[in-house]
Design brief:
- Four copies of one chain form a homotetramer.
- Chain A folds into two domains: 170 residues, Rossmann fold (3-Layer(aba) Sandwich); 177 residues, Argininosuccinate synthetase, chain A, domain 2 (Alpha-Beta Complex), CATH 3.90.1260.10.
- The first copy, chain A, is 45% helix and 19% strand.
- In chain A, a hairpin with a 2-residue loop joins strand 8 and strand 9.
- Chain A has a five-stranded parallel β-sheet with strand order 3-2-1-4-5, sandwiched between helices.
- Chain A starts with a strand and ends with a helix.
- Chain A is built from 15 helices and 14 strands.
- Chain A is elongated, with a radius of gyration of 25 Å.
- With 409 residues, chain A is an alpha/beta fold.
- The longest helix of chain A is centred in the N-terminal third of the chain and has 20 residues.
- Chains in contact: A-B, A-C, A-D, B-C, B-D, C-D.
- Chains A and B meet through helix 5, helix 6, strand 11, strand 12 and helix 9 of A and helix 5, helix 6, strand 11, strand 12 and helix 9 of B.
Chain lengths: 409, 409, 409, 409
């Protein structure tokens, strides 16, 4: 494979730093480092300098934090996408955005190839490469960690020292970390013993619930057509809002999750996640939907969430099915305007109040003491027709009903 | 309608007490009170006496708590059935069991009719009557609250006093309560203002998280083929285990939920639920499934949960679809054996460890540093084929990919 | 209930003709007859005169055939909505359009009520009344056949004769018929014996396959973004195209269906349907989708079809869930442009050729003899990862695999 | 890789014949040919001799036709599994059975490897290898067509001639064929032009509808709990029944399908299928289900069919999800007993009559002229409650209803 100029998704870690000299050496090509700012909270100017120190003649830092919130996080929250019922998709969601950023730089710089620093065991390689295929199918793809003979951290350090790549002085954490403005995830290393609780000092975005404030804090979050737009009465842009929710949620220890999940590449893996602001946002959004979306629509939407989450987790962000889901979801969000009141306390968040100009909740309808909606006698007709299939089945198949009967004992 | 002898689902409350003289007066029939012990924690001997004092010549207390756990709660937990993602179905689940108990008494006593004390605005009338239709379609059904002219509590008290029915001395709570060994629910009355947080004294099964113990408590729950069988190494029968989990969960304030839900009869309503032991049980079971169920099976099972929950909530417990779901779920549970370690602390419960003889998690497979499962180069082949539909779509429809592109900005 | 002026959905049949004097007599109100032309192929001027002869001071014929094709039929075909896998929804689909037409006349005429001629046993009452609730929830609703004491055809004739309503001279068919430009359905009467084949003379839209032409006929149907726009190279408006397809399909005996279906109101019923042009349209559209929609999107869309069909059949045309589905479907149809060649012959229609500028089919990719898409060795990597969950499951649970093994014998 | 003895799935075609010397030469191993009789209708003794003539010291013919019908076809029909709505899975379904047969021989013969003759572009390689992984994960797997340097038929013939493998005298068909007792499929070659109709002489199992009998033929098929057990009143074993239905269906030209489908390995491909008896069986079974399965159960089952079909098509026959689906389906089939009358005529099959001792169809319930099931007034109550979510939505969001309104014009 001939490569002249490659755009590398660069993180600043040892893994992608080592890739710079390796790409140069292996392909005789120029390496452009692309550093996407997705809110990982690092000194990205230092990262940029490290890229050039490692041998990349040019390194770009691109701030995509606003797009991350608006075009990735918000649609995902609106879709109710939670992988395997628990994982809020923080890493999965950032990958297509980083890949997109990388493709844009590659096209502007006239690159003929794209590279990433993911290994062959994880999900991220799939997410990067499927995004490449969708956005720039004509560019070549290089995955050094699947190709070279470096195995493990020690060999990588050795290779780095041989090639003049700066090696971090501090010892690495005994697990892998991925951070952005939505979440911080930890996996591998000592976490591979799934019976053992993660150490206290693993958590970076959330306070230990035991040391969190002793009094609950109440927040009011405003939404317009499913988009978060304000906090405690103050209108905020989505990024500013996320940052505030992260700070408050983190202070109360909200949004920790310790789980085993199914990787796309076939094995199970443990992930420990912290999504403080995200957990608050998802909780409040779901609660607002409960009063503004009609029942049949709400129930069907619940089925779409898990499939949407699969798409994101499986690297299919840029796919026609996600587009179609987004259209579905957007239609449901037209009424999702209003305010939810949540309570945060020592690791948990709970909705305790909600209101909306489009509220379908009507105390007069729900009350048991009045007949304003319908004459209660009408319910008898409803029950007769609603239960008719069951009744006919029971009359026709009494032996199967006997079975039902016996089951109970 | 001619009725000679009616079996009434009797709770001991004013609503069903008033029904006794009304049924006698209206139909000239004998009233048999059926009191199902589903763990509501009341003095059921006193309830029985109240029934006879209200005019029922015979009143039966039937302890169905074991059946409740074994045949209702466990299948529902295994199915992952949670209504609208949040409600653990405590009331919905008890109704078909109470109805079944009532039918058994009715058949033994030679009754020709069944009666319940539900109003025409709620879900429970449907649950009772669909169970009647399934189990005893030949019996007549009477729903006094849909038929008579009594409206509201004051008229009921007046009617009671006129007919010698004992009237509770204490003032009623300003909301309705339903209790059993799975949950305690509150609704209506002051809760109809959905913006206002429930009062602190509403909660009966759970401590206020603020006053809960200041140190976390760890539990180890054992499962065999999806059934909970032990706690902290001690083997327990399911009922005993539930009672323990309720006590411990409640102490730590676990399992509160404040939500607006969609009733089957068409309107939205607010429910405030406490399911302390149930929340622990569901959390642990889900975590054990994560390591013992294969991915495709696990993902499909997630779609069945919401539909199963609809069936339960909509009164269709005794239905062929639930039978078929139970068969599906039972097949998935054959491997769900093992132990989950959970941490309870001030209102929240979190899984922190899990192990199983059937564990599909294998640290050696998941680790990034070794090639024991597959050569990492194989991942490239996977990605090529997995991404092929996307790549072809992108190459064929570049204008739609441009759209994707633009979306992001 | 006080009613001053009622808009009646008028068909010209005995059922709705009798309703005119009954409404006048019962409510002392004025009756406006609304006759929607949905392509039922009758002399609607005569129908209009019959309405006035029956006592309606004013009768409106509204031609809604174009809207029927464009806004009802096409979205339904695009959604792949087929009730219970077989029924193409001809009657279900016309009802909300007739109701909408009726509401528009009612609003223009200042009516305070709406009436229809459906009985209490069928689905149509639900379809009319849910449309009324969505479009004009403030208007009263009258359903004479559920309210009056007329039972059956003979009593209706007697009532008609007493009230000067013209009575058809010819004997009624021994079953009920509903016709429009999409289909002709027959049900009830002699068809209630579900073991017996419908009589030959029942079919009105389709030739008997035995007398259909002895040579196949080939058609080429053009689509643009999922909309049918041409036939055999000639561009046609949707209504004109439907009429042509009905004529040709009918000549070849295409589109008959004899089935038992589940009514919304709880019982099963037999319907015999003729949908000649519709069957051709659906067959061709599905075949074009096969080459223009990406796999994951296509597979998910197949799950939406049955739920969309339920919504239509269950009277929920005007509902937020249908709106959301339409948004999803519209997104998928952006690439569904091209031509399908179908063969019609003695009762069957079969796609035999298809082409599209957006075709995702690529002979070079599919061929087994070339490696242009991927190196066949890459497939090995795909299989390893794709099969990994199964392999781990099998290794961990050999006893369950033994079960698999034994099953086979 | 060291291989001592390999069991090869042998078909008798050039592809697998050439594999015999190649395996011997490449691995220095013994080759055991396994020939599964799945009803492909060839002289399998001659195939066996060809295997030994090609260099396999031992070749086994195993008749698995009964297992094919009982354990593969019947469960699949009961599940309603049809891939992409049209493909009856004939090839997909045979593969796991052939693989299982091969594994059994391999274990009996002490083999240490398994081999198949599939290419790297198709689905079959996945189906074989996932079955191997499930049933014998300890055995090595060899896929010669992905490994060697032979490309295309001519090189294979050359290799055969060099190695003494008998080469067929006749010219190969200009497309690939796969046959068994369920279907005959054709693909590739001239069929890759998807605009052109398949040639008349391609069809092997079905008469041209134009030359099929001029009179319809009626059949009555009996089922017991979803299993076909008789034809025209004569009790038959499942295999005998399939053979009869194939003969009769084929005579009438029933069961042809020409379609483009999505391969698992990522590209679209055209398949032309003939499934004469299968199409009859599926049609009749579905019609019997319509009168014996309760509505909610039937509707949910329709969602399982497409996923079940994916599993089969994707090679996941031996998987826990299929086991769970089988348990679901078996529960639904307990009532599917009865007889369906179908009419076959010139390419089409249509149900025209059905009866069952468990029939949930009841003419008295369905009839419009009687009130035996429920008072028609009860329908009003049903409609009120059924329509309530829509009505509330419409009243709360009139602007969205206006949108609905405008859509129609």
């Amino acid at each position: 494979m001939t490569v002249k100029k490659v755009a590398l998704a660069y993180s600043g870690g040892l893994d992608t730093s080592v890739a710079i000299p390796w790409l140069r050496e292996t392909y005789g090509c120029e390496v452009i480092a692309v550093i996407a700012d997705v809110g990982q909270g690092e000194d990205l100017d230092a990262v940029r300098k490290k890229a050039t120190a490692s041998g990349a003649p040019s390194a770009h830092v691109v701030d995509v934090r606003r797009a991350f919130v608006t075009d990735y996080i918000v649609p995902m929250v609106q879709a109710g996408a939670v992988y395997e019922g628990r994982y809020l998709l923080g890493t999965s969601l950032a990958r297509p955005l980083i890949a997109r950023t990388q493709v844009e730089v590659a096209l502007a710089e006239g690159c003929d190839a794209l590279a990433h620093g993911c290994t062959g065991k994880g999900n991220d390689q799939v997410r990067f490469e499927l995004a490449y295929q969708a956005l720039a199918p004509h560019l070549k793809v290089i995955a050094p960690w699947r190709s070279w003979h470096i195995r493990g951290r020690e060999q990588a350090i050795e290779y780095a020292q041989l090639h003049g790549v700066p090696v971090p002085a501090s010892r690495a954490k005994p697990y892998s970390v991925d951070k952005n403005l939505w979440h911080c995830s930890s996996e591998a290393g000592i976490l591979e013993d799934i019976w053992t609780e993660p150490p206290d000092d693993l958590y970076q975005y959330t306070a230990d619930p035991r040391t969190a404030p002793d009094e609950p804090e109440y927040l009011e979050i405003d939404y317009e057509e499913g988009r978060p737009v304000g906090l405690n009465g103050e209108r905020l842009d989505p990024l500013g809002l996320m940052e505030r929710l992260n700070a408050i949620g983190g202070k109360h220890g909200v949004g920790r999750m310790d789980m085993v999940e199914n990787r796309l590449v076939g094995m199970k893996t443990r992930g420990v996640y912290e999504t403080p602001g995200g957990t608050v946002l998802v909780t409040a959004h779901r609660d607002l939907e409960a009063i503004t979306i009609e029942r049949e629509c709400a129930h069907y939407k619940m089925l779409i969430g898990p499939r949407y989450a699969e798409l994101v987790y499986y690297g299919q962000w840029f796919s026609p099915l996600r587009q179609a889901f987004d259209a579905f979801v957007a239609s449901t969000q037209r009424t999702v305007t209003g305010t939810v009141r949540v309570r945060l306390y020592k690791g948990s968040v709970m909705a305790v109040g909600r209101r909306s100009p489009n509220s379908l909740y009507n105390a007069e309808l729900a009350t048991f003491s009045d007949d304003s909606v319908y004459d209660q006698r009408e319910a008898a007709g409803f029950i007769t027709l609603w239960g008719l299939p069951t009744r006919i089945f029971a009359q026709t198949n009494p032996h199967l009903i006997r079975f039902l009967h016996e089951r109970v004992r």
